[in-house]
Write a structure and sequence with these properties.
CATH architecture of the largest domain: 3-Layer(aba) Sandwich
Shape: elongated
Strand order of the largest sheet: 10-15-7-8-14-11-12
Number of helices: 19
CATH class of the largest domain: Alpha Beta
CATH superfamily of the largest domain: P-loop containing nucleotide triphosphate hydrolases
Distance between the termini: 77 Å
Largest sheet: 7 strands, antiparallel
Number of domains: 5
Strand content: 25-35%
């Protein structure tokens, strides 16, 4: 039996010089300090990476990838770039020093990022006596109390002697097995943490694949940047592969892009629908010891590997106190690719300390939406299930509706997942599909139906009583085409309007037509519509329907009044407006050309009996102008 290899990303956290890098080396055999300055100074400055494989009891393999982050307060920015993509944390505390400022700040950051899985390792156990070790373990337990890692195990180990390293390895295995698989319904995203040139290969970028898959040979996009390179090759954990799965550390060799165009903070995507945003609506949780955050305060915004300045506009305008939770709109100095549910961290500009963080609710804010309306919508969104959030997103688009592609871009779910999630709502009638892939809420559709009807009634009250063209009514309502057409269809089914040909009028305005008259008029209309330009005479049509000439004349008068039929001169020749519309389109393509009777007969396929009256009609309508034996098409 073949087992799929699971990949889990572990991030280190802790104060400077507490032994994070040495511990990772003891677990993997890899020194994550790669920069010359890191090796010279003996501290981690930027992100370091290492990995190891473990064989599980069921025969499957667990790939543990470590992101080793800096512990110095000056490099918290780099630390945040590493922790944004991790599944679990390994919090490191020195047995010699105990809990220090960056220990607490890193733990706060893990909580703000929603990291609930991990372990604590008390390092350098060989350098202290048993009493000191016990004191630090108690101090660590006190620190964890009430945090997202309150149930994490605390282990003591020495990277120098190897004492306790196997215990740490077994706990990492347990933690890794408890990490839930990555959601297969999410679109592909790979936030970049490094970009460099490799001799003989060109541009290489690395990151942690948050969701989806990446395949060698496919074209991808970098956001922000609107770049579209091709994936020449893929490595995961140092091994060449044809496909990378979510949860893996990935290196991409990109063709068609200069390394100067790729940088930390960009995201590799495979869906053209996704795009970076500069305005996002979020819920922010401030730390208990955070200073007051004022409306429109400037903060540092960190999400995944991105960081930028942001202005925090607080809904309600009142300042946010420590330990409070508030809805805010963040205006980012630089655009970042974000989706609902993404976690972020906020840091004060001066002094540079972590003050809070939160979750993205909406990265596709609608323009010109009143703040009160937006606030109420965000409150509902923050309390709804994923399916309920889809309903709210459709509803806020009102009569415009929203396509499945845009809904996918707003949520980060694949189109197939969206289809599956909205299916129950379509079956229950809460949502309606319009024009194939556009969704509109039943409430909005009902409002659109009533609006179309009210607009039609107003046109009649203004003196229009011969029917309103569908195109004119659509223009007056400014509704999306699919929603307008469905509204007309529903109004007809409800018996509130009569739609005949291109004309529409309220049922009440047609009270002079009996049900029998309407039936006969529809039959006459069908004859002329099917005949096209070569329409029968009124007497021929009357014979086919067994109508008297007098009755035929009366009914055709109604059809002329409603502009469903047009009469060609004094002769009793009538043509359906749809046929005339098609002829006008043909003439538009001949504008400026000369047209004689023979050519007109050839174009239309008509005999002289129909061609001459029709040309005279076109002259009267100023679509052609007679010049001797020919016509100039105007």
């Amino acid at each position: 039996m073949t087992f799929a290899k699971r990949s889990v990303v572990i991030g280190t956290a802790g104060h400077i010089d507490h032994g994070k890098t040495v511990l990772v080396r003891a677990l993997t055999g890899i020194n994550t300090d790669r920069l010359p300055e890191e090796k010279r100074r003996g501290i981690t400055i930027d992100l370091g990476f290492a990995s190891t494989e473990m064989l599980l009891e069921d025969g499957s393999q667990l790939q543990l990838s470590f992101i080793d982050v800096p512990g110095h307060k000056l490099f918290v920015r780099n630390m945040l770039a590493g922790t944004g993509c991790i599944d679990a944390v390994m919090l490191v505390i020195s047995a010699e020093e105990g809990v220090k400022p960056q220990t607490k700040e890193h733990l706060d950051i893990c909580a703000l990022l929603g990291i609930t899985q991990g372990l604590v390792v008390v390092t350098k156990r060989d350098a202290v006596d048993a009493d000191q070790l016990d004191r630090v373990v108690l101090e660590a337990r006190s620190l964890l109390a009430g945090s997202t890692l309150s149930n994490a195990r605390i282990l003591a180990a020495s990277a120098r002697t190897g004492h306790g390293i196997e215990d740490v390895r077994r706990e990492l295995q347990r933690v890794g097995q408890n990490i839930l698989p990555h959601d297969p319904d999410r679109l592909t995203r790979l936030p970049l943490d490094r970009a460099f040139v490799m001799k003989g290969f060109g541009t290489v970028v690395t990151g942690t694949l948050l969701s989806g898959t990446l395949k060698a040979g496919q074209h991808v996009s970098l956001e922000p940047g609107d770049l579209h390179p091709r994936v020449r090759g893929i490595q995961t954990h140092g091994h060449t592969t044809e496909i990378a799965h979510a949860g893996s550390r990935v290196a991409l060799n990109l063709a068609g892009i200069d390394v100067a165009s790729a940088h930390r903070g960009q995201t590799v995507i495979t869906s053209n629908a996704l795009a970076a945003a500069s305005v996002v609506d979020v819920v922010v949780n401030l730390l208990p010891d955070a200073p007051e955050l004022k409306h429109r305060a400037r903060v540092h915004f960190h999400a995944f590997t991105s960081d930028t300045l942001a202005s925090a506009s607080i809904y309600g305008y009142q300042s946010a106190d420590a330990a409070s939770s508030r809805l805010m709109r963040l205006r980012l100095k630089d655009p970042v690719l974000l989706l609902p549910g993404d976690r972020f961290v906020l840091r004060q500009c001066s002094p540079a300390v972590t003050i809070g963080g939160g979750r993205v609710i909406d990265a596709h804010t609608l323009p010109r939406l009143r703040k009160a309306v937006c606030f109420a919508w965000l409150e509902k969104m923050d309390q709804s299930s994923e399916e309920g959030k889809l309903l709210l997103r459709v509803a806020r688009r009102k009569s415009e509706g929203i396509s499945l592609a845009v809904l996918s871009a707003e949520t980060g779910f694949t189109a197939a997942a969206i289809e599956r999630m909205v299916s129950p709502f379509l079956n229950d009638g809460l949502l309606v599909r319009v024009g194939g892939d556009r969704l509109v809420s039943q409430e909005s559709l009902t409002a659109s139906i009533n609006f179309v009807h009210a607009t039609l009634l107003k046109r009649f009250s203004d003196g229009v009583n011969a029917g309103v063209k569908r195109s004119e009514l659509k223009s007056a309502t400014e509704l999306e085409s699919g929603v307008f057409d469905l509204s007309i269809e529903r109004l007809s089914q409800q018996g509130r309007i009569i739609a005949r040909g291109e004309n529409v009028f309220p049922r009440d305005s047609a009270s002079e037509y009996s049900a029998e008259d309407q039936k006969k008029m529809s039959a006459i209309e069908d004859i002329y519509q099917n005949a096209g330009l070569a329409s029968p005479s009124s007497s021929e049509a009357a014979d086919r329907l067994s109508l008297s000439e007098r009755e035929m004349h009366r009914l055709i008068t109604f059809l002329l009044r409603e502009k469903i039929l047009a009469r060609l001169g004094n002769d009793p020749i009538y043509i359906h407006q749809s046929a005339l519309g098609s002829l006008k389109e043909i003439l538009a393509s001949l504008k400026g050309e000369s047209l004689d009777v023979a050519r007109f007969k050839s174009i239309t396929g008509l005999s002289r009996k129909y061609a001459i009256p029709l040309l005279e009609y076109l002259d009267r309508e100023h679509l052609t102008k007679k010049q001797g034996d020919s016509r100039l098409v105007l």
